[in-house]
Amino acid sequence: MRSLALLALSAAALTQLPGDARAESTPYFYLGPQISTLGFGGEAGVRLNDFLGLRAGGNYFSYDGDEEIDNIDYDFDLDLASAGAVLDVHPFGTGFRLTGGFRWNGNGADLTATPNGTITVGDQTFTAAEAGRVTGEIDFNSFAPYTGFGYQGGLFGNRLLLSFDLGVLFQGDPDVDLDGDGTLANDPAFRAELKNEADEIEDELAFLGFYPVAALTATYRF
How far apart are the C-alpha atoms of 222 and 219, rounded to whole Å? Predict the structure, then answer.
C-alpha cells in the first residue's frame, strides 16, 4: 500500500513540473538519440493529441567479459539488440505517460569455458581433455512485451524534448545450449551432464526474464 501511495504521489507531482511537453499543437513529431539499459540507440515519435502518442526505436550494446556461472569460469560475449514500438497514454494530458508495447528481442550471449585441469559439468567432474572447450549460447524470446511509465518535458519553447522512462521488458526465461569438443563430446553421459549444466544456468539467470528498462532520451520536435 505504501509503494502504491508513493507512485500515485509521484504521478501527481509529475503533472505539475515546469516545462511540461503539452500537446498545444498536435500532432507533432520528434526524433533523437537515447541511452538506456537496453543499450545506445534512437527514438522517433508522434504526439497524436493531448492523451495519445506513438513511439518507435531501437537499441544496441556489445560487451566482452568473464563471469563465474555455476562454479565454471566463462568468457562471454554479450549482445543487447532490440527494436520495437509502443503506445503512450497521457492520462492527465501532460508529459506524464503510461506506456505499453512490444520489441523484437535479440538479447543474448555466447559463452566459452576453457578448463586447464578438471571441470565440473552438471554433477560430474571431467578432465580438460574429456570436456574440451565448453561453448554455449544464451537466448531469450524473440518477441518481448514492454510496459512502463515516464515523463516528457520541453525546453526552448518545447523544441527540445527530454524524457525519462522506467519499465520492464518481459523477455522470458533464458534458453541455454552447451556443447563440448573434448574426447567425450559424443558420449551420452557427458551430453546428459551438459544438459544438466545448461538447466542450472537457466535457473541461475531466470531473473533476467523480467529485464529492467531505464531510458533517457533527448529529441528534437518538428
Answer: 10
Per the domain annotation, does 150 fall within a domain?
Answer: yes
Q: How many alpha carbons lie under 13 Å from residue 30 in its C-beta half-sphere?
A: 30
Give residue 70's domain range. 19-221
Counted domains in the chain: 1
Assess if residue 178 is contained within a domain. yes
Closest-CA residue to 51 (of 29, 27, 31, 74): 27
Measured between alpha carbons, how far is 108 from 82 in angstroms, rounded to an integer? 11
Distance between start and end Cα atoms, the chain: 42
Domain for residue 5, yes or no? no
CA 11 – CA 151 distance, rounded (Å): 9
Nearest one of 140, 215, 138 to 171, comparing CA atoms? 140
Nearest-angstrom CA–CA distance, 132 and 151: 52
Please state the pTM of the whole predicted model: 0.83
16-73 pLDDT, tens digit per residue, is 444 565 555 679 999 999 999 999 999 999 999 999 999 999 999 999 999 888 888 9
How far apart, in Å, are the Cα atoms of 101 and each of 77, 161, 167?
28, 21, 11
Q: Which amino acid is at 201?
A: I
Cα distances (Å, whole numbers) of residue 188 to 22, 61, 127, 169: 64, 37, 16, 37
